[in-house]
Amino acid sequence: FFLDVGYIGAHGNHLEANLDEPNQLPISYLTTYGSLLTQAYNSPAAIAAGIQAPYAGFTGTAAQALRRFPQYQTINDNFDPSGMNDYNSLQVVLRKQVGDLHLNVNYVGQKNLGDVPTNGANSGNVGVLDAYDLHLDKSEQPSEPTRRLVGSWLWDVPVGKGKRYAEGINNITDYVIGGWEVGAIQTYQNGYILSPGGANTNPIFNTDPRPNELAGVPVVLHSCSDVQIGSVLDNINAFALNNPLQLGTAPRTLRAGRGCGRYEEDFDLQKAFPIRERAHVEFRSEFYNGFNRHKFADPSLSVNSPSTFGEITTNDSGYQPRIIQLALRLIW
Q: In degrees to the nearest 10, what's the CA dihedral of 208, 214, 218, 223?
């Protein structure tokens, strides 16, 4: 019997993040200038507010005139070191042999917070709510489940000569029913966290505007065990379009509500048939996703598409149906 319980934690600062937006206007401008930001820089209201052309020949809105570099649009720095990541996990390993059964179980419970994807700045970071306050983007990372259990086992079937059962059978019978091994790898994990999308654009050039999340309204309508294609998993009434002159209150990833989890069992049945002292034929049969389970693809959570918000529309294309493989191998 072997049991190992461990903790693994990591904290990183100054990660490549692509979060710096030097040409974004400060959030305070939404209050200071309001809807004036969307007007032409030379409109009477803009002139009255003291907004001037930043250079000769400028044409554009008051918001563009107020940018740090008004001659440019969005300026990206893919390698700016402004990201952070905070990882904590409980990891448990159990190994035990019970007679002819060999058992191995691995469990990971983890939480990964950050403001940049775990696989780098150029791998899915769609923008930032406010480049002047990166704490607004700190949330649970969308690329990892929080709970994962993987069990593997191998059973040397105790039937045949030298085994617990049918020890006295003849050679022919033992050749057929003796010496079999059965094994499996079983994987169970919860779903990936979801991100709300769709919002009114803020006239300050922030690159990831978000909707509002309404307090007290449940996000999750059903569990994955109760839905099918066409069912609605999450509640659009938990969100609302933001005022264009205000930042949305929804987090980068949801605190509640996940996609459907992964449940998969792979089985193996094998036996060696001796031919001579130094040669034998190995028979293997492998059943991937043996119970032919399926996994629904994560729903879209865009408030700009209310007819499909939270709807299960298809199965996950990366989740294969049952596959059976049979093989014979001569070993000498």
A: -20
Cα(185)–Cα(164) distance, integer angstroms: 25
Strands 147-156 and 139-140: unpaired
Contact between 118 and 133 under an 8 Å Cβ cutoff? The reply is no
Q: What's the predicted TM-score (pTM) here?
A: 0.84
Q: Cα dihedral sign for 291, 296, 298, 301? A: negative
Token look-up 């996703």 returns 289
Strands 147-156 and 2-15: unpaired
The Cβ of residue 162 has, within 10 Å, a number of other Cβ atoms equal to 9
Q: How high does pLDDT run on average in the chain?
A: 90
User: Exposed e or buried b for every residue in 120-159, given b needs 16+ CB within 10 A?
Assistant: ebeeebebbbbbeebebbebbbbebbbebbebbbbbebbb
- Confidence band, pLDDT 50/70/90 cuts, at residue 117: low
- Measured between alpha carbons, how far is 132 from 19 in angstroms, rounded to an integer? 10
Helix (H/G/I), strand (E/B), else coil: 192: coil
Give the rounded distance of the alpha carbon of 21 from its chain centre: 25
- Residue 56 CA neighbour count, 13 Å, CB half: 0
